[in-house]
């Protein structure tokens, strides 16, 4: 065949493939399998000075009847085409509950966490267990558990929501159900049942844990315990940053099967090593101030700010004062699938741009 004949045959061949809903691999093999991850999500920071006033305005304008039963402002990564996702696998948001409000119960296939930023006198009921909430507390609402939020306070509460909604949606495994008649579920016994049973360090009820349970039986992790653990770890280690993981106390596995939850404490004026990891993470500044460098871009942060670190982006942190940051990540999923990888870079990355 002449060159012209080959071109004509190829044109017809590709047309026949397209008509048959087939695509050849060879023109796009590097697009499908690049040498390293090329995330669509971009490094980004949302400022508390913007988030809180907008959440307060939502509290004034959006009543329970207008959708305020879940008064949530979602972090929308600019690289994800307008989707309300912080990363392709993680949802991050701020939720605002007015004084005296109750948000009716529902359940869904995505798992969720609540990390409290401000307020008191609120409890989340999870499958009948009313868990009191206070700043710095982590509350779990695992996959397919009934949960509602209730305020007995004369002031509002605001917390960070972390969910695996994008992952569950991508897997076409989304289910949602309102509690019957869209009411609150009954509270079984006194508040904080899971904490009484599983919240004492190193102590567990005698007996075999439920072998079918995939999440921690402890539903609320108290700030006092988190703070004490971080303080002890910082005394023992001289690293610029120490990290603890919230785990199932009966198995030491991640508290939720699809999201890792970590708390970090940074020493001031010490830059951490630069590391990149597969998978993404969302960070919430609980206290302090500092900066994070992601692939050469510096993001200056202070209390309440929220950041997203996309997959395989080199990241390091420097605190200007003692600082605590909470984070969620999708590492448990990648580890379960054998896809997790991390790499420490030889030196902290240079800064090429500053976003302050």
Walk me through the structure.
Helix content is 19%, strand content 32%. It is α+β, with helices and mostly antiparallel strands and 356 residues long. The strands form 5 sheets. Strands 1-19-16-21-14-13 form a 6-stranded antiparallel beta sheet. A 6-stranded antiparallel beta sheet has the order 2-3-10-5-8-12. The protein has a 5-stranded antiparallel beta sheet with strand order 7-6-9-4-11. β17 and β18 form a beta hairpin.
C-alpha-based Rg, rounded: 23 Å
Beta-strand percent range: 25-35%
The profile of the biggest β sheet is:
6 strands, antiparallel
Q: Give me the count of strands.
A: 23
Order of helices and strands: HHEHEEEEEEEEEHEHEHEEEEEEEEEHEE
As a percent range, the share of helical residues equals 10-25%
Overall geometric form: globular
Low-confidence region ranges: none
Biggest sheet, spatial arrangement of strands: 1-19-16-21-14-13
Tag the structure with descriptive keywords:
single chain; 356 residues; alpha+beta; six-stranded antiparallel sheet
Summary of the model, kept short:
By secondary structure, this protein is α+β, with helices and mostly antiparallel strands. It has seven helices and 23 strands.
Topology (elements, then pairings):
Elements: H1 3-19, H2 29-32, E1 44-46, H3 48-61, E2 72-74, E3 91-97, E4 102-108, E5 112-118, E6 122-126, E7 129-133, E8 138-141, E9 147-151, E10 157-163, H4 165-170, E11 176-178, H5 193-198, E12 220-221, H6 223-236, E13 241-245, E14 260-266, E15 275-277, E16 281-287, E17 289-294, E18 297-302, E19 306-309, E20 315-319, E21 323-329, H7 331-336, E22 342-344, E23 353-355
Parallel strand pairs: 18-23
Antiparallel strand pairs: 1-19, 2-3, 3-10, 4-9, 4-11, 5-8, 5-10, 6-7, 6-9, 8-12, 13-14, 14-21, 15-22, 16-19, 16-21, 17-18, 17-20
